[in-house]
Amino acid sequence: MRSINRFIFCCFCFFILLVQACKEPSLEVHIKRFDSDLLNSTNAIVPSFYAQLAQNYVGFYDSYCIDLLGIDSSERSVYFAPSLKGFIAYPGIQMLKHEVDSVFPNLDFLEADLGKAMYRYQKEFPESKVPSFVAFISEFGYAHVTYDSIIGIGLDMYLGTNYPIYKAPSIEFPDFMVNKLRKEYILPNTLKAIGIGKFEPTLNDKRFIAMMLFEGKLRYFVKQLAPQLADTLIFGYNKSELDWCKQNEGMVWKHLSETNLLFSTEVAQYMRYLNDGPFTIATGVPQESAPAMAVYTGFRVIEEFVKKTDMSLQELMEYKDWDKILRESGYRPN
């Protein structure tokens, strides 16, 4: 009997070790709820409330007031209290706060996913500081903002495709945009915001090839940090749009290369291939096309380049010889 108990105990210990080994490594990530701290307070009439809030959100508070809400910087000396009092008291904002709270009573799901992604980020970019995260409400102005190492997440831009205000005449987001205003997009968009904040400032080449491959890099960056994400979420496509890109990869490449677009510096001409929309609105491109079809092409070039060179993610994101990336990728789809 004693040997049987010992066997059972050993099996139990082995099971615990197996579970721990299979558990995905993660960093502890906490998203500070600026939206709640600002809008849920009963102390909004107390001047010291705003000073304390500014202290608690150093690096974000001033930018939120000036850049997101458009408050005049002359109010900085009083922590923007006069305008913020009106903002907090506005019935529409309080209604929006209630709706955000009902969809996001907590952000545990996002903190867990970001924790896993930031563990990978720290491994890939060991000399970079892991960003801090702040949730906010801007009355449908911004989905994400980046201030140094702070990533702001606009929760009112992720209330779901059936949220009626998105289709209200005063806002009226187009359908292709509304389809992406749901919580499943917060993680990929947040990771993309990190990539943009860290690497876009060094993007000095304004040719189409550079812009296309940079967009491809961003999607590759997101995919490496969150491999569990569906490609539809990474690219912002529905299944039929993603299938179209895969099935027409050769046709898209032929169109881009034969129309001399790749090395164009005419931003107004080539941005239609990178901008979101109901489809890629460009001459010679069918209406059944996926939107921003060159983004998928850029990703595929980057994918092939990494296979050929075996670059680390950090090396890839810092590498800016766009012509060499294209050449060494050997990308020539049929």
Describe the protein in words:
The protein is mostly helical and 334 residues long. It folds into two domains: 31-197, no CATH class; 203-329, no CATH class. It contains 17 helices and four strands. The chain has a four-stranded mixed sheet. Helix 10 crosses helix 15 (293-309) and helix 15 packs across helix 17 (322-329). It starts with a helix and ends in a 5-residue tail after the last helix. The relative contact order is 0.09.
What does the secondary structure layout of this molecule look like, with pairings?
Elements: H1 2-22, E1 31-33, H2 34-39, H3 47-56, H4 61-68, H5 81-89, H6 91-103, H7 108-124, E2 132-136, E3 144-147, E4 150-154, H8 175-178, H9 186-199, H10 208-225, H11 231-235, H12 239-247, H13 249-258, H14 267-270, H15 293-309, H16 313-318, H17 322-329
Parallel strand pairs: 1-2, 2-4
Antiparallel strand pairs: 3-4
Helix pairs in contact: 9-10, 10-15, 15-17
